[in-house]
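Methods — Computational structure assignment.
A single polypeptide chain was analysed. Its primary sequence is given first, followed by the predicted tertiary structure written as structure tokens.
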Amino acid sequence: MAGHSKWANIKRQKARVDAQKGKVFARISRAIIVAARQGVPDPEANFQLRTAIEKARAVGIPNDNIERAIAKGAGKLGTDGNELAEIRYEGYGPGGVAVLIEALTDNRNRTAADLRAAFSKQEGNLGETGCVGWMFKQTGIVTVIAPPDEEAFLEVLLEAGADSYEIVELEEATLAEVTTGVSQLEALSQVLKQQDYSVQEAELRWVPTNSLEITDPDQARRILKLMDALEDLDDVQSVTANFEMGDRLLAEMI
């Protein structure tokens, strides 16, 4: 769940992703369809498509499924790809937490109704377009396996025009999340690959420009339930919120 600043939240997100592989497959397949539809259906000439394919392979989606999704996006297997629309929804969670949702849907009314129901169950509400979007900034994020020589890594980042980086400690690996401008994402990813750094992911991510610190356990529980409910919806691609939660409080929730 993007929008959390504690590494324990990242661990929690990755555990949920592993547990819901079927939903992940569907989301990434949809992303491939849309990427192929919006640009050329050639990953070498379409960065969005290439990164979607890399995500697909990272989670074990079979090549046949990937090729089928590309073909759908290119219009070679009917009109499924043309029916999907990218929509951004905005709302408020418990305590006024700002929530930004990206969806791919073939039925706007269904998606809006599902989101509205998820918000209302946790004392939140789906808002109008623009109600919280100004609290977030879209940013390019390249995730790599953290290098042993951090000083040399920093020199590469400075030359490549990166804005900043943070080390992320996970149980299975230590990662470095490198931040850059939206237009620089592809170039930064290529530079890091050329320098033999192990790039795990390159993506555009909405990052909150201000955050709310959550300290009340009941509010924390309702926020996490809301995030879970939103992420479980089939049409939802990503959910971002502007709250922070300490490790001790998070440990009580999971």
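Note: The beta strands are 85-92, 98-105, 125-126, 136-145, 164-169, 174-180, 199-208, 212-214, 236-241, 243-245.
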